[in-house]
Write a structure and sequence with these properties.
The chain has 2 domains: 177 residues, Globins (Globin-like, Orthogonal Bundle); 182 residues, Helix Hairpins (Orthogonal Bundle), CATH 1.10.287.950. It is 86% helix and 0% strand. The chain contains 9 helices and no strands. The relative contact order is 0.07.
């Protein structure tokens, strides 16, 4: 190879004056067939996803089509000048920039050459060129076209490979710089992480970092700062929790003792209420029995009232009979008085009669004596009747008083019966109420026993929480915080 430049390539590929003359001779034919050849090529581009992806629209493809048409016309002119080489470098740079792989580029040359060579061969085999003597010229045209395409392809590939090499060198340099920067960042981050692993939450990356590592530094410092704030808040919360847990445990123990005392008191109260309930029930039963006895007494007293009324009536009748007897005795006494008066007159007349009236005088004397005895007997009977009447009157009065007393007794017994009934009802209601109270007290005792058990569980939970708070305090104590952060205080044992 005479050289790596354009001239050296032309010399190596034997692109001579005759080659250029052959291209220029076929230029009209090539220019005529180029649009169809490029249409064939871009139709394949549209069907292939990998190549179609490099074009944003059909307008973009049309623009590329026109550019390729001008470029191939330049190849067909045979003028491989410096301007041509510059244009090729531009095309190669674009291909390298968009990442068009050489396989698709080479395939494109193959498709275009296929159409052009076929067109040249067909045209040379017929018409004005149908002369076997001209076959050498046809071969010259085809080889010149192929050499021009290969020259163009080699120049473009050189640009592509040079760009790739430059990109590789650049990437290698960037990788080396990135590796050095990464090593520096890793070293810096390792120191910060080492301090963080030891619990030093004041560790920060103070060194200036570039690129994405600056975001890493900011993220690390921000995360450690947030962790520092979180741990500081946890320290404060643990300190508060430690104090609260201590108070909770003390309060829980005190509440447990109070609940136990309350449970014992309620148990005693329940027993006392049970005894009171039994006593009230007995009182209710006694009141019920008393009410029955009072009802019986009232009934008997009410039954005695007619007897007293009958006795009062009988005593009234006796008093009436005594009055009648007294009247009869008065009549007898009057008769005795008249008889005595008549006997006295008869004695006087008999005395006047003398001896003749002596017998009559005797009779008159006897009649007088008999009348006197009758009068005396009548007076005695009258006295007895009077005394009997007084006694009967007293008896009537006493029986009346007895009736009134019985009436009052019946009223009092009725009142007592009502009161005893009220007492019995109240006692029954008290018994029911005390039964409900007893049930409520027993329920309170049961609930209090449950509360006592729950309070005991709470106290145990508070004790466990206190142990966990101590453990958490020990764990947090391993962290180093900035000055001013509240220290963690252990709970007093």
């Amino acid at each position: 190879m005479a050289g790596n430049g354009l001239d050296g390539r032309l010399e190596f590929m034997q692109v001579t004056t005759e080659t250029r003359r052959a291209l220029r001779a076929a230029q009209p034919l090539i220019s005529e067939k180029l649009p169809a050849a490029l249409d064939h090529f871009y139709a394949q581009v549209r069907k292939t996803p990998e190549t179609r992806a490099h074009f944003s629209s059909d307008g973009h493809i049309t623009k590329a089509h026109n550019a390729q048409l001008r470029h191939w016309q330049g190849i067909a002119s045979g003028e491989f000048s410096a301007d041509y080489a510059k244009a090729v470098q531009t095309i190669g740079g674009v291909h390298a920039k968009i990442g068009l792989e050489p396989r698709w580029y080479i395939g494109g040359y193959a498709l275009v050459l296929d159409q052009l060579v076929r067109s040249v061969m067909a045209e040379r085999a017929s018409g004005m060129f149908a002369n076997k003597a001209k076959s050498a010229e046809t071969a010259d045209i085809v080889t010149a076209l192929i050499k021009g395409a290969m020259l163009d392809m080699s120049l473009v590939l050189d640009v592509y490979f040079e760009a790739a090499e430059a990109e590789r060198v650049k990437a290698e340099a960037e990788r080396a710089a990135a590796a050095a920067e990464q090593a520096r960042v890793v070293q810096t981050l390792a120191r910060a992480l080492s301090g963080l692993a030891k619990g030093d939450l004041t560790a920060r990356i103070d060194r200036e970092l570039t690129g994405d590592y600056a975001q890493l530094r900011d993220d690390f410092n921000g995360a450690v700062g947030e962790l520092h704030g979180t741990i500081a808040a946890v320290v404060e919360a643990v300190s508060s929790m430690t104090s609260t847990v201590g108070q909770l445990k003390t309060s829980g123990d005190d509440l447990a003792r109070r609940t136990e005392n309350q449970a014992a008191s309620l148990e005693q109260t329940a027993a006392a209420v049970d005894e009171i309930t039994v006593t009230v029930r007995r009182s209710a039963e006694t009141a019920r029995q008393t009410s029955g006895a009072v009802a019986d007494a009232r009934q008997e007293a009410e039954q005695s009232a007619p007897v007293v009324d009958a006795a009062i009536a009988a005593m009234g009748e006796i008093e009436g009979s005594a009055k009648q007897i007294s009247q009869i005795i008065g009549v007898i006494d009057e008769i005795a008085f008249q008889t005595n008066l008549l006997a006295l007159n008869a004695g006087v007349e008999a005395a006047r009669a003398g001896e003749a009236g002596r017998g009559f005088a005797v009779v008159a004397s006897e009649v007088r004596a008999l009348a006197q005895r009758a009068a005396d007997a009548a007076r005695e009977i009258k006295g007895l009747i009077t005394d009997s009447s007084k006694q009967v009157a007293q008896g009537v009065d006493l029986v009346g008083q007895t009736g009134q007393a019985l009436s009052r007794i019946v009223g009092r017994v009725t009142q007592v019966h009502g009161l005893v009934g009220d007492i019995s009802t109240s006692t029954q209601e008290q018994a029911v109420g005390l039964g409900q109270v007893n049930t409520a007290v027993n329920e309170m005792d049961r609930v209090t026993q449950q509360n006592a058990a729950m309070v005991l569980e709470t106290a145990n939970a508070a004790a466990n929480l206190a142990q966990q708070a101590d453990t958490l305090t020990d764990l947090i104590g391993r962290f180093r915080l900035a000055q001013g952060a509240a220290p963690v205080r252990r709970r007093a044992a």
